[in-house]
Amino acid sequence: MRDNTAAINEIIGLLGDKQRKAYVRSFGCQLNVSDGEKIKGLLMKMGYSFTEDEHEADLIILNTCAVRESAEDRVFGIVGSMKKFKELKPSLIIGIAGCMTAQSHIAEKIKRSYPQVDIVLGTSAISALPELLLKALQGAKFSADISEYDDFSEAAEQVRESSFKASVPIMFGCNNFCTYCIVPHVRGRERSRRPEDIISEVSRLVHSGYKEIMLLGQNVNSYGRDLEGCISFPQLLRELDAIEGDFWIRFMSSHPKDASKELIDAIFECGKVAKHLHLPVQSGSSDVLRRMNRHYDIEKYLSIVRDIYSRDPDFSLTTDLIVGFPDESGEDFGRTLDLIREVRYDNIYSFIYSKRSGTPAAVMADSISDEEKGRRMRELLEVQREVSTEHYKRFVGRTMRVLADDVSKKRQGWLTGKSSEFIIVEFEGDSSLIGQFVDVEITGSMNWAVTGKLKKG
Ligand code: SAM
Ligand code: SF4
Ligand code: F3S
User: How far is the CA of 99 from the centre of ligand 3 (A)?
Assistant: First the structure.
């Protein structure tokens, strides 16, 4: 962990009482959002306040995602449009952080084609932000740090987005090298945080009133394997479950190849662990899974699902799916639709395959047209809609415990929240309930949410 105190103090001295507002926007997964919260924590130390309006910012940081080409295109579009901001306010500093910066061709493109960018900050170099910012404030045209230091987690203060839901990364990086995926290339190998650090962070959060703790890792099931004598993920769940307080524990993502019986036992035996499992399958075809390097086949996947349903037939499962992996045949795709119908997911996150340069799938032959991939995506969404419409009916007539999240965007005077099963629940209620657990009697269901009545008392 680098010592950035001198740079922080120099910035405080340099800016004095000058107003400094930062706009920090994170793209991509929750791990990246958590990094964004750490970036904000560092900026707060340097006296920055935050704005949601980029037009009034003195510093803009885009914390980027590289998982699909569309995500990168979006960021390039935004950076392009910020050229005029800089013309209007030459003192504005623009920084690019996150996963895009870890690809050398992207870092070069930013330097070559986007002179409005002052700072490039790599995914493992967040603690270098004060030094880079200091250089930019002193007039440097471009400064970058994409070297690897550490994950900075233990020392980092965070400016959290929510006062009742907190993300807690338990590990960084990924060892799995799925053939389509850029993440291991931009985030490096697995590094687990020490269990005592995680337990004390979660205890602190719970004691300060947080109601939902989301444990994060690209594959939480391999937690601790890189640390000698470390406890396993199911053991970590049990330790966290023992912390006193009224709160829920969620986690993402759980790779099916490592989803053990111990994990399922822990989910069912720990009262605070939510009754929902996000189990990304990616494809319903064992042949495609082999070419994706996923290390399980559909039989193994279904054996996990059957174990869960044998304990609770109403348990909630969600998944990630990729449509149009190179040379995915019509039969392969049909198997994905069959799987959706068999598992009855409550929700799916589906993506059209995006070619990522440097990954093995990028050089695989692909004879499927973009039109066909689009058609398959529409069909998949239609099947999922039918499945969830039917499956959500099981909640009608029940009382669900819900963490009230926000005001409903659909109906005035209503709130929206999530149940332990990760189902969206909409109900009439006062905004003072936001951030609290409430009981809701479910009276109706749709394909994306259930509706109900707040139970009094
Ligand atoms: N580590 C998690 C896992 O293995 O389930 C997933 C992390 S990834 C950030 C989230 C999802 O993005 C993946 O589950 C996959 O469905 C999707 N994804 C990753 N690479 C992709 C690509 N090249 N094209 C389309 N979708 C992709
Ligand atoms: Fe990507 Fe696979 Fe790692 Fe998930 S497990 S981050 S999909 S390489
Ligand atoms: Fe996450 Fe995107 Fe990076 S999904 S790890 S922000 S490539």
Answer: 6
